[in-house]
Amino acid sequence: MRCVIARFPFDLTKTGVLASMKGIKPEQVIGESVIIGRRTYPVKQVGQVITRQDRRDFSAGEVLRAMAQLGFTCRGGLTRTAATTLVLSPLQRASAMLGTPLTA
What are the CB-based long-range contacts (under 8 Å, 24+) for 42-47? Predict the structure, then answer.
């Protein structure tokens, strides 16, 4: 499959990605991830290995789209609502549930 990552065209195949990632130890997953074989890799690590480019040169979305089109299972990071609820204090959460937002 032909895809463009960081303005460069790549011809990627599922078997080619599997071969490239073979023997690569997964880093800790914090955000988006791709399941390749039995392992879960961060998207940026996969992009770096298959494109041989610096992680700053491409976005996670570009790699996610390519991996999803190849048939790999992709998982997103924290959703906006999950991140918001983690940041709110108990007082702010209770105030929001009562319908009267707490102002600073």
Answer: 43/67, 43/74, 46/17, 46/21, 47/5
Examine the pLDDT at 85 and tell me if it is beyond 50.
Answer: no
Q: How much is the pTM?
A: 0.69
Neighbours of 60 (CB within 10 A): 20
Task: Name the residue with tokens 């800790």.
Answer: 28
What is the Cα gyration radius of the chain? 18
Find where tokens 């071969």 sit.
19
Report CA 78 to chain centroid distance, whole Å: 10
Confidence at residue 80, expressed as pLDDT on a 0 to 100 scale: 46
The residue to which tokens 């007082």 are assigned: 91
Question: CB under 8 Å to 48, separation ≥6 — which residues?
Answer: 54, 55
